[in-house]
Amino acid sequence: MVKGVELFARADGAKVFATGESIGQVASQTLVNMAVVEEAATLPIFCPLITYDKGEAIALAERIGTFKTSIIPCQDSCTLFLPPRPETRGKIEEILAAESHLDLDAMAASCLSPQRPSPSDLCSLQ
User: Fold this and answer.
1) Cα–Cα distance measured from residue 5 to residue 92, given in angstroms and rounded to the nearest whole number
2) How many Cα neighbours within 13 Å face the side chain of 114?
3) Which of 22, 38, 72, 77 sees the fewest Cβ atoms within 10 Å?
4) How many domains does one find in the chain?
């Protein structure tokens, strides 16, 4: 996902991007995993909610008017790709090995096309 985000960011001339990660908010948002994500990125990542607990994040979303949008039921990457047991201590070597079997540039570029593929289509671009 970082590769796709970076493609969008570069297309818009952005020099950084932001995520909504919060340490421990979900099982995969551990310091170890966040470091692996940072290592995969070529642009700086801002994490403005890094120290927020769930209540604080909700209060902020309500204050800035994004809460109602955030609770609309939909399938996002979290629900589509959620493994039965999320990795809490990812290893960059394993990530790079898995990525080596994918055409990440093609997958990311397809996200910018006018005819955006579904997530299952992206998975078939190997």
Assistant:
1) 19
2) 0
3) 72
4) 1
For the chain, how big is the Rg over CA atoms in Å?
16
Q: What is the DSSP string of 55-114?
A: HHHHHHHHHHT-HHHHTS----HHHHS--SS--SS--HHHHHHHHTTS-HHHHHHHHHSS
Q: How far is CA 90 from the centre of its chain?
A: 15
Range of the domain at 102: 2-123
Structure tokens at 96: 């790079």
- Indicate which CATH number applies to the domain containing 117: 3.40.50.620
pLDDT at residue 12 in the model: 87
- Give the model confidence (pLDDT) of 38-73 as tens digits: 888 899 999 999 999 889 999 999 999 999 988 887
Two structure tokens written together for 76: 């996002």
CB 122 within 8 A of CB 15: no
Which parts of the chain sit beneath pLDDT 50? 122-126
